[in-house]
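BUG: 3D viewer hangs when loading the predicted structure for this chain

Environment: internal workstation, default settings.
Expected: structure renders.
Actual: progress bar stalls at 90%.

Input used:
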Amino acid sequence: MRYESTCGGEQAAAFERALLSGFTPLGGVFVPSSVPKIIDTPFLVRHKDLTFADIAYSIADVFISPEEVPRADLRAIVHRALDPSRFPHPDLLPTVRLGDRLFASEQYHSPSMVFKDYSMQVLAGLLNFFMAKRGFGGTRRANAIICTTGDTGSSAIEALRHLDCVNAIVGFPRGLITDFQRRQMTTVASDNISCFQVEGSCDDIDMAILKLFADPAAVEKYSLLSVNSTNWVRIMGQISLFVYTYIKTCAIAGLELGTDIVVSVPTGACGNLASGLFAREMGLPVRLLAGNNSNGFFTRLFETGVAQVLSPPAKTLSSAMDSQFSPSLARILWLASRYEPENFGPAATAAINSGQPFILTPKALARLKEMVIGSYMINDEETRQTIKRMYDQYSRVVCPHAAVGYAALDHARIQGLVSLETPAVVVETAHQDKFAEVIRDTGVPYHAKKQFTQPERFQQWTRDEDWREKLLQLLKLHNP
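Structure tokens produced before the viewer hung:
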């Protein structure tokens, strides 16, 4: 398998480069040169009694050449990363029935209590493999620069904190994440972890990071890499979440494998949605529904055909989705516009990376609406109401992001887009502890079980400072 850029016209790359490079030289992101349609009914039948790690290995096997990672090594990396002993639930991501045709996929029984962990742990294992081959370790380390709206940062820290080949530099916006999310990151005392807090938004941090990655000398000197959803391995790893959830939902619902089901995906920067779309492109029989908070980036694109950032992002209860800068959008446009390169070439990339409006062609928009059956913008008041309704109706405590997913499904049912007889599963992306105060404010009695007693360590950056220069200073500190 080779990898190409969403910009088009760039030289094809091996998996190792896609893993370690993050952005392509022209500012695009990597996508596989082809998307094999392997997830047919026989594939699902063969995997129906296998573990999540087995399914994750089968997906990785498609996208990683055995010449780059021998199969015994790949199997060991994936199974070590997803060993049940490292997760608080033996099933890793259980699916539960809530109603006759309503199901929940609990994708937060993980080291940092968020769905991103499953792919991030695999990514860390692959990084360790390739960094060791390159002679990294000890004082010679690569450097991952991470921007987070609360969940990616803690997930990356949990995955990378014990590696001696990678430093993690994590930035987050002041006052726009919960205290729990902040403490998950800032109380980790590892010499390869640094955190900084900025006066601004996550999108502002993203732009500073993008400028740093656009400097070839800095990328080479510090061996810069990305573990955000910019990195293809994050998308690849999350494909298996959709496959496993589909198989488990069919089993619980008594459905034949191959039956279409609806999956409601809360989405902000579109990374998890992109993974679901790749799973669908590979043959998984799912109909995807998108739920946005009031920032509504993807919903505006879906309704108007215009990809447009409205800056700054609004602060919402579902704070991990308070982002509009979306490298993963380039992958979605690539899938929607395979035969119209102008919709995923340099012009589209430049517009996405600079926050400028970009208009899809009618054909690309029509294709997008085949890939995603609906997209809904859910405001904070409706989020609160949904949290309370889920507790009152199902005795279920859900985080605000899951509430957005449930509310989106409610809208689709009311509008007749998804019938009451159609089985539907909502992706619950984060643990309730991360948002205990938000949940309590709706009248639902909930208190976080996990507490933090360690001191916090992070830098504070103001708007009038040069964040690119501050990043370089941190890199110099980690790489004397």
